[in-house]
Design brief:
Layout: H1 17-24, E1 80-87, E2 90-100, E3 103-113, E4 122-135, E5 143-149, E6 159-169, E7 181-191, E8 200-202, E9 226-237, E10 242-248, H2 254-257, E11 270-277, E12 282-289, E13 293-302, H3 340-356, E14 359-366, E15 370-377, H4 383-397, E16 404-411, E17 414-415, E18 418-422, H5 423-429, H6 435-442, E19 444-446, E20 457-458, E21 465-478, E22 485-498, E23 503-515, H7 534-537, E24 542-553, E25 559-567, E26 572-581, E27 588-600, E28 608-625, E29 628-636, E30 642-651, E31 657-665, H8 669-672, E32 678-686, H9 688-691, E33 698-703, H10 720-725, H11 729-734
Parallel strand pairs: 15-16
Antiparallel strand pairs: 1-2, 1-13, 2-3, 3-4, 4-5, 5-6, 6-7, 7-9, 8-9, 9-10, 10-11, 11-12, 12-13, 14-15, 14-20, 16-17, 16-18, 18-19, 21-22, 22-23, 23-24, 24-25, 25-26, 26-27, 27-28, 28-29, 29-30, 30-31, 31-32, 32-33
Helix pairs in contact: 3-4
Length: 741
């Protein structure tokens, strides 16, 4: 059963620069109405008048296709999908994501009744898929895609395929481009998809080993090996709401149609279905499969680029143009700069409108021609929002002689970057046609000044600061063979005390009201039980989730540091130290973390168990542009194993984050146990996507197919890179369109 652990999210990625180059050189045969037009914020364009085509329809595997067979289509870039398909005692729940315009990834959880050969009344199978587009559809050529099905699971559903799809507009059958469209696909399948109607073979395919309890390893020796068989499918989009599908299937369903399962009788290779587009996001379908059974599916597609609720933010202050110097020489006077009292009055005058805009003034340095504002962004997910709002307030309040604004975002007392804007540029560009690009072209971005400026006027009454919150908590557990989903719910009280900049003390108490995590299966791990005793930690109602103190500071140019001590998370307490090298304009950042921790008592009070360990990792973070982030961490893990974690994230301009990761250490697949190695997917959804109001809060989790003890890290609150990244060059550029909002 999986334990949810906060931390950096990561990813599995196959790169294909040649495919990207090919696509860049290949024009679309017609505009893709499912994708936003060029312009706007990268990855975050939204036009309330924009009406996309209905989403690509999905098959029972939760991927583009007809019923059981795949097509070559791709979902719109960044699209996510959740789908549920069921027939003949077989239920498939799939989460899919269009990681690149040319690559789809998915994770699937399948339940099969009566598969007693595996020791369960219902056998639960976990699998990953990946699909890569080789050719984009052209005027005369079809779209061509290659796919790997269940390439890193038990192998029960493993298969590979190459498929081509071509669409045809049939005006006589519809009234617009949103209807009257027929799509035809044909392909060759191997493995499951080559098990019926084989027309040839490409060598021997190693058989799936039912006695292998680990699973999770890549089946390189199986890919595109063994018998291959043709399949085909056709879809007619009757109108905006209705679609009809038919296919010829090459899956023999050997395990499901033979004893002891006998889930259905395969009487035909032809499947038929009707689907209804209930809304832009929801699609429902009913099917007749293999001449024997009825089935249904429900598909939910969503795109982080298009909010569920249109975000509404208070209108920003307009830029107040200064009078001409010749017309109002007194307004341009610098005599005020010799008075500390007047400067303090300007600081006070800035603080209130900044607070109304969700920004907290930390300090202000004023000279006759320049203002340096250090501020904390308490409201906006995009740092560029804070930059724009702060600049507008400064233009409204400060004397006319102040031409240069230096905006320094701050978190936990650390200055993150320095954005330099000329006031005259703000005045000239506010209503210009290319205001966003123009302002970025003239904005300076660099390292924030280190240390405290003796001339800076700190905010009054900002420290010490105490805050608290009371609300619900949800602690899920996934993929227990007897109960696929478990959940604890309760109330959570959190409090934070900040005595001075850079110093934090925080703690969280929890009271469980209901739940069943304590009923999870006992650990059978041969490694130290660093994570697999979750059921023992879940048996207590009142717990101290964490209680720690932390110090943040800037030890030098491009450097950030953290020292944290206490009860770091529900299972471990100790001391954690971290140093991060992160130049503002460099896409590469390097971090080093060392932890000395001890395992906490199961009751999550103040006591500890005997197990203690030193862990540490060197981490490289690489910003790849357009919101893509690759991370590699190498070092020692909680069970004493040594290895590396590879991760890949996609971060959208509005705060959505989707990623995946895998970890390989010196623990063998047999020692690791079920799953063979640690891997998983993660996501974070900003609350403003649902609420329509700006906030920095979000909901997120990490989902592992199976929670084991190998490759596990400590969950340390307040790691540095996530705090620093948002205010550095790549993230600012990705969200710069929000600077005028």
């Amino acid at each position: 059963m999986s334990t949810v652990v906060s931390g950096a999210v990561a990813g599995l990625c196959l790169t294909a620069p040649a495919l990207q180059a090919q696509e860049a050189a290949t024009p679309d045969p017609a505009p893709d109405l499912r994708a936003p037009p060029p312009g706007g914020a990268a990855g975050d364009w939204f036009d309330p008048k924009f009406t996309p085509l209905p989403p690509v329809s999905l098959n029972f595997y939760g991927l583009p296709g007809a019923i059981d067979m795949p097509s070559a289509e791709m979902m719109p870039d960044g699209q996510g999908a959740l789908s549920l398909g069921y027939f003949a005692g077989i239920g498939r729940l799939t989460a899919a994501f269009q990681l690149f315009p040319w690559m789809t990834t998915s994770f699937r959880y399948t339940g099969l009744k009566n598969l007693d050969r595996y020791g369960f009344d219902t056998y639960w199978d976990r699998s990953f898929d990946v699909r890569v587009r080789l050719l984009k559809e052209g005027t005369y050529r079809p779209e061509l895609t290659v796919g790997l099905q269940d390439f890193a699971g038990t192998g029960f559903y493993s298969g590979e395929y190459v498929v081509a799809t071509k669409g045809f507009d049939v005006p006589a059958l519809g009234q617009s481009r949103r209807s009257g469209r027929i799509k035809v696909s044909a392909g060759l399948g191997w493995g499951r998809l080559g098990s019926y109607g084989s027309i040839g073979s490409s060598g021997e395919r190693p058989a799936y080993d039912e006695t292998d309890s680990e699973g999770g390893e890549l089946g390189f020796d199986q890919w595109f090996r063994g018998p291959y068989a043709p399949f085909g499918l056709i879809e007619w989009r009757v109108n905006d709401k209705w679609g009809v599908k038919a296919e010829y299937s090459s899956d023999a369903y050997v395990n499901e149609t033979t004893a002891p399962s006998n889930l259905f009788e395969r009487k035909s290779s032809f499947n038929f279905g009707v689907e209804y587009q209930a809304s832009e996001r929801w699609r429902l379908g009913g099917y007749y499969l293999y001449g024997d059974k009825l089935g249904f599916s429900a598909q939910l597609q969503f795109n982080p680029k298009y909010p569920a609720t249109k975000t509404s933010v208070p209108a920003p202050q307009p830029i107040t143009p200064r009078p001409a110097r010749a017309a109002a020489p007194d307004a341009w006077s610098t005599s005020w700069s010799s008075s500390t009292e007047v400067k303090a009055a300007y600081r006070t005058a800035l603080a209130e409108p900044l607070a109304a805009n969700g920004l907290v003034l930390e300090s202000l340095t004023l000279t006759p021609t320049q203002a340096v504002l250090r501020y904390k962004n308490a409201r906006y997910g995009a740092a560029a929002n804070g930059v724009g709002r702060a600049a507008r307030v400064m233009a409204q309040v400060l004397p006319a002689s102040v031409e240069t604004f230096v905006l320094v975002p701050v978190t936990n007392g650390m200055s993150l970057s320095a954005v330099t804007l000329r006031r005259s540029d703000l005045e000239a560009l506010e209503f210009a046609p290319e205001a966003t690009a123009g302002l970025r072209a003239v904005a300076g971005l660099g390292e924030a000044p280190l240390g405290r400026d003796p001339a800076a006027l700190p905010a009054e009454g900002l420290y010490p600061d105490f805050s608290w919150s009371l609300g619900p908590y949800f602690e899920p557990g996934y993929f227990d063979p007897s109960v696929p989903f478990r959940l604890d719910v309760g109330a959570q009280l959190s409090a934070t005390y900040r005595p001075a900049p850079g110093w934090v003390a925080s703690g969280t108490l929890r009271y469980k009201i209901a739940g069943d995590l304590d009923g999870g299966r006992p650990s059978n791990s041969v490694l130290p039980h660093v994570r697999t005793d979750q059921n023992l930690y879940a048996q207590y109602d009142f717990t101290m989730n964490n209680l720690f103190g932390a110090r943040y500071w800037r030890p030098g140019t491009n450097l950030y540091a953290r020292l944290t001590g206490g009860y770091l998370e529900s299972m471990y307490g100790g001391l954690s130290g971290e140093v991060l090298w992160a130049p503002v304009t460099n896409p590469l950042s390097l971090g080093l973390e060392v932890n000395a921790v001890k395992q906490r008592a199961f009751d999550q009070g103040f006591g500890f168990q005997d197990y203690e360990v030193m862990t540490g990792h060197a981490t490289a973070y690489m910003e790849l542009g357009r919101g893509y982030l690759a991370t590699v961490s190498a070092g020692r893990y909680l069970a004493g194993d040594v290895g590396a974690t590879f991760s890949f994230n996609r971060v959208f301009a509005n705060g959505w984050e989707v990623g995946a990761f895998f970890t390989k250490t010196d623990v063998s697949a047999e020692e690791f146990g079920e799953g063979s190695f640690d891997k998983g997917i993660s996501f974070r959804i900003p609350l403003n996507w649902f609420l329509g109001k700006p906030t920095r809060n979000g909901l997120g989790t990490v989902i592992r197919p199976i929670q084991r003890d190998g490759g596990q890290m400590v969950s340390v609150p307040g790691r540095l890179y996530g705090q620093v990244r948002d205010s550095h060059a790549r993230a600012l550029d990705d969200t710069w369109a929000r600077v005028w909002e």
